[in-house]
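If it is no trouble, can you show me the amino acids of a protein and the tokens describing how it folds?
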Amino acid sequence: MREVRWQDLERLADLEQELFGAEAWSLASWWGELAGRPRREYLVAEDGDGIAGYAGLDHAGDTSDVMTIATLPRVRGRGLGRRLLEELVARSRAAGAERLLLEVRADNTAARGLYDSAGFRLLQTRRGYYPGGVDALVLALDLSQEAQA
């Protein structure tokens, strides 16, 4: 894994479109995210075929938020999503966060399984938040408890 560089942004915007369609971040959005450093932190994971996944955080005092986490279909089921999430948790702790938040589509069963197994708990449901009336689940991980475990 490595930090996202400005040279990655066009490829990330293309991958976003492939992975998320109408909900994808634009190239302009990616530039804005990268400009948010050091509060915003983004990583890419690479394999022999290029970018295989990416993830990002927003650090806001005692709370960090997962801004995005994605893996390409060619690498799914190999633990890359878990490794990206573990890196986000570690970076959140290093930034002094006591809680890590994220939002996930209620119909994204693979992501929900990952987050459940990592100890995230339901904080709030945003009814009909996503296109098509899909709920958004706001999940939280208590980093202070995890650190003591």
About this structure: The mean pLDDT is 93.
